[in-house]
């Protein structure tokens, strides 16, 4: 997987701008994202299993922010949709959106490490 294949899912220029053009800092943020996003996805799955929608909403919001910070805009948008579905009590869409968030984060975790090398 490379950025060219998934260019519509990322905005690396905006991410670099958030870090004042410092590619080393962005690279460090991506490394942190790799760890945190995995933890947050797992926690969302666990919260869904026990029906803790408040926790799912908080974690989706967190994942939305951290995805946006590193330029993973598709993961950010999917996380936002999940957060909105929970707030609107649209339980029918929550599991579907969780799968889509997981898919986008998985792509981000594979593509982003190669972006700043």
From TrEMBL:
This is Hpt domain-containing protein. InterPro entries: HPT_dom_sf (IPR036641), Sig_transdc_His_kin_Hpt_dom (IPR008207). It comes from Maridesulfovibrio ferrireducens. The modification Phosphohistidine is found at residue 61. GO terms for biological process: phosphorelay signal transduction system. Residues 22-117 form the HPt domain. SUPFAM superfamilies: Histidine-containing phosphotransfer domain, HPT domain (SSF47226). GO terms for molecular function: protein kinase activity. It comes from the Bacteria. Keywords: Phosphoprotein. The keyword Phosphoprotein applies.
């Amino acid at each position: 997987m490379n950025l060219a294949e998934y260019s519509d899912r990322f905005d690396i220029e905006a991410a670099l701008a958030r870090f004042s053009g410092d590619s080393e800092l962005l690279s460090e943020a991506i490394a942190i994202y790799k760890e945190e996003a995995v933890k947050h996805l797992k926690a969302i799955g666990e919260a869904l299993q026990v029906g803790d929608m408040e926790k799912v909403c908080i974690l989706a919001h967190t994942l939305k922010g951290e995805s946006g910070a590193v330029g993973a805009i598709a993961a950010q948008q999917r996380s936002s949709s999940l957060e909105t579905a929970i707030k609107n009590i649209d339980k029918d869409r929550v599991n579907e959106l969780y799968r889509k968030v997981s898919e986008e984060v998985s792509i981000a975790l594979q593509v982003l490490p190669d972006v700043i090398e």
